[in-house]
Each structure stands twice: as structure tokens, then as C-alpha cells.
Write a structure and sequence with these properties.
heterodimer, A: alpha/beta, Rossmann fold, five-stranded parallel β-sheet, four-stranded parallel β-sheet, globular, B: mainly beta, SH3 type barrels, five-stranded antiparallel β-sheet
């Protein structure tokens, strides 16, 4: 049971491709940013760029939660993991992200107790099973993942689990979009909006994009037909002189979002004054922390954290990749000093990262780069 | 029931459509891609057997209409 076959129909894909070709004028350039790393991965995995005319340029955005975590927060997580009697639980990809003192995987090799989980609920279960240890969940992710952490905190509170905490690094999608939209000389004409973040926050949350910045956005899902249809919808808006928020993912996403999920987040977390993002710097009100009334579950209050700000390696250009300023292959260390096996930057760690996706599926085809300017 | 091979387990925007096989309190046993998993249904408390739920990081976020996909 895959639920996806109809969204990979090659006949429909060719039909959508033909419509996209008919909606652009030869020689123009339409730059479309896919905000979400899941979309970046799907674009490369399914070779969607091959179905697009050269006038459409896809620009990869900041929506990979692993990729935007700064090195200092990884070092904070390592400090927690190295505390006597503590188990640090986190998602698999987060274990490979290099911090200033190596990765969590390397900390594990040095003797720290770091364990991979698929869900914060698994981390809570670890705490129940091992009451002699303190289990801290290293939480990352956008609004899609925050509800799982919220539900876990509520269960921990209701059950009175005393040996569990959350190192909260949940981030919000609007501030980085505003940062990108506010960049002088912005070279993005339209946006493909994230599907599952939107299932939580709703499509109304993006109204500022057309209203304040004059760019259209279509929220879409992750299959090839979804993405092609989203591009058609964006181009139709342009052809008809419209600029608005549209929803391609109507089978899941509502304009108002998921009230229960938003309430669970509000009951357990508050918006931070500011938070450092890799590639984007410090963004005001861009992340979440654990609420005061759940302070006993807040790792930032339970542990002495280094809290250092660590510069990215000079050769690493993740910041420019994350903001769509350069393509992955334009970074000097792409595929050489920085590979999925030995990542230098976060964009090469997660398979949703633009560099890892390009490395895995597309590194041999770079037609745009080879085409002469103005051709 | 995990995300497809090659996709990121961590990504905040990847979720999986899975059918409910049984509801047990605040959790449900769901199946997708031949795998079975237990997920929290705190956010979809009225989930019923046979429904398709959108699951991410061990919880169900939403229900899907029959015949649709994530």
C-alpha cells in the first residue's frame, strides 16, 4: 500500500510538462524557490528538472531543519551527552552533523551515550524504561515536528516522568522566508511552499508573501505530479496577472491549519527572542523554547551549556546554498572535501539538504551551468 | 513504517500516509509500505480503524481523505 502511484503517472507528468513549456516565453528566466528540503530531494530524485524548459530555474531554499542548525547548538548537545548519567536521544541525521567538537556520533564513540530515535515518544519511552538515567531529547525541526515534541512533553508532564527533558531547537518557517524575501536584489520570482509544515500552520500563514513582497506561493506535496502541478499553478497566476497563496495539497492542507497541533505547541513552547540559523545569522522570533511552567523538562535550564557561536568552516558555503544564492556545485568543496560520507557542511548531511540531494542524484548533469549566458 | 529509502528521517517536512489497523487508547497501530508501527493519535483522537493518517515523528498529524496520498 503506497498511496502514491497516481502521483507518479508519467502520462500526466508529460502533459503538465507541456503546459509548463507553453506558459513561458523563450529566453526569459523564471526563478522558483522550493522552500522545503523534501521538495529539493524529490526534484533531484525524480529528475524533474529534465521535464522543465530552460526558462524555469529551481532555487533551493532553507527548509531542511538539519541544515539550519548552527554548529554551536551541536556542541551544546554534545555537552549534554557527555554529562554523567545522561542519555541523549535524537534523529539519525542529527548525529552526523559536525559541530566545533565533532559530531554526536563521534561523541558516542568517545563514550557518551547517544541514541538514535524515530520519535520523541521513543525518547520518552527510553526514560520510562531506564529510570536510573536522565534522557534528553535533542529536538529539531519546523512546525511539522514540533507537535510530536509537544505531545511528548504533555505526556511527560501528565505522567510525571522526572528523568526526561527536551533540548528544544524547533524553528519557525516564516522568519527565514522573510529574511530571504528581504534580501536586496532578491532573485526569486515565486515560491513552492512546504506541504507538511502547512498542514500544521495552514496556508493563511503565507499571505504576507504576496501581500508584502509581491510574490506568489503554491503549497504542494512531494510527488512528481504535485510539484509539476504547483509550477503550472504559479505560471498560470503569472499569466493571469494574479499574485496569491494557492493550495495544491488540498487533500491534507487547510487554510487555517491544524488547531489541535497548534494548541499543543502553544501549551508547551514559546517563541524565543532570537535564534541563530546557519547561513541566515540571528533571526528574531524564529524558534521555540520550552515554556516556563515546563521548566523541569527544559534541558537548557537543567544543564550548563557552552552556548558558543561557532563560525562555519571558511571553505563551506552552506549559507549561500541555503539562501539560494549559489547552486551546490558552485561551492569549492562540493563533492571533494565535502561528501555525504564526510560532510563538512550541514547541507551535505541530510538527504534533504540541497548538496546531498544533488550529490546523490544529479551531479553528472549540470546543463544550466554549461550553457553560455544569454544563449 | 518509515519514510521511503533515501529520504531523510529527520526532515521536518516529510510525513507518511498510513492506514489505521487498530486503535488502542492514545495510540494506533498503523501500516504503510508493508511496515507496521505504533503512533500517537493525541492530535487525531477520534481516529478509526481503516482511516488513513498522515504520520510524522511517531505521531499522526492529520487524517487524509480516502483515495488520496501524502
Amino acid at each position: 500500500m503506497r498511496f502514491v502511484d497516481e502521483y507518479r503517472d508519467p502520462v500526466l507528468a508529460r502533459s503538465l510538462s507541456a503546459e509548463i513549456h507553453s506558459l513561458v516565453t523563450a529566453g526569459e528566466v523564471v526563478r522558483i524557490m522550493e522552500v522545503c528540503g523534501g521538495h529539493t530531494h524529490a526534484i533531484y530524485r525524480h529528475g524533474l528538472e529534465e521535464l522543465l524548459p530552460p526558462e524555469i530555474e529551481l532555487v533551493h531554499g532553507p527548509g531542511c531543519p538539519v541544515c539550519v542548525i548552527p554548529m554551536g547548538r551541536v556542541d551544546d548537545a554534545i555537552a549534554i551527552a557527555e554529562t554523567e548519567g545522561v542519555t541523549l536521544a535524537t534523529f539519525g541525521d542529527m548525529m552526523r552533523v559536525p559541530g566545533g567538537r565533532g559530531s554526536l556520533l563521534e561523541a558516542n564513540a568517545r563514550g557518551a551515550d547517544v541514541r538514535m530515535v524515530y520519535s520523541p515518544l521513543d525518547a520518552l519511552e527510553l526514560a520510562r524504561r531506564e529510570p536510573e538515567r536522565h534522557v534528553c531529547f535533542f529536538a529539531i525541526g519546523f512546525e511539522t515536528t514540533a507537535p510530536a515534541t509537544a505531545v511528548t512533553l504533555l505526556r511527560a508532564r501528565d505522567e510525571g516522568v522526572a528523568n526526561f527533558s527536551v533540548f528544544c531547537n524547533h524553528v519557525l518557517i516564516e522568519p527565514p522566508l522573510r529574511a530571504i524575501l528581504g534580501t536586496p536584489g532578491l532573485r526569486v520570482d515565486a515560491f513552492v511552499g512546504p506541504g507538511h509544515v502547512s498542514s500544521v500552520i495552514g496556508t493563511d500563514a503565507y499571505r504576507f508573501i504576496p501581500e508584502e513582497f509581491g510574490r506568489p506561493i503554491v503549497v504542494t506535496a512531494f510527488e512528481p505530479i504535485d510539484l509539476l502541478q504547483a509550477i503550472v499553478m504559479l505560471l498560470r497566476q503569472r499569466a493571469e496577472g494574479r499574485c496569491e497563496v494557492e493550495n495544491q495539497y488540498t487533500r491534507v492542507v487547510r487554510s487555517e491549519g491544524n488547531r489541535r497541533a497548534l494548541d499543543a505547541i502553544a501549551e508547551t513552547m514559546v517563541t524565543r527572542e532570537d535564534f541563530e540559523w546557519r547561513g541566515l545569522g540571528v533571526l528574531a522570533r524564529s524558534a521555540l523554547s520550552v515554556r516556563d511552567d515546563l521548566a523541569t523538562f527544559d534541558a537548557e535550564r537543567l544543564f550548563a551549556l557552552p552556548g558558543a557561536r561557532i563560525e562555519d568552516p571558511k571553505a563551506c558555503r552552506c549559507g549561500e546554498v541555503l539562501t539560494g544564492q549559489i547552486k551546490p556545485w558552485e561551492c569549492g568543496v562540493f563533492g571533494t572535501a565535502c561528501t555525504p560520507e564526510r560532510p563538512l557542511g550541514t547541507c551535505m548531511v541530510s538527504s534533504e539538504g540541497a548538496c546531498a540531494a544533488f550529490f546523490s542524484y544529479g551531479r553528472l548533469r549540470r546543463p544550466r551551468e554549461e550553457a553560455p549566458v544569454g544563449a | 513504517m518509515r519514510v521511503e529509502t533515501g529520504r531523510c528521517l529527520t526532515c521536518g517536512d516529510v510525513a507518511v500516509a498510513a492506514r489505521v489497523e487498530a486503535v488502542e487508547g492514545v495510540e494506533a497501530v498503523v501500516s504503510a509500505n508493508g511496515e507496521r508501527e505504533r503512533v500517537g493519535i493525541d492530535l487525531v483522537p477520534d481516529a478509526r480503524t481503516g482511516e488513513i493518517l498522515l504520520c510524522h515523528a511517531g505521531i499522526a498529524l492529520e487524517r487524509l481523505a480516502e483515495g488520496s496520498a501524502a
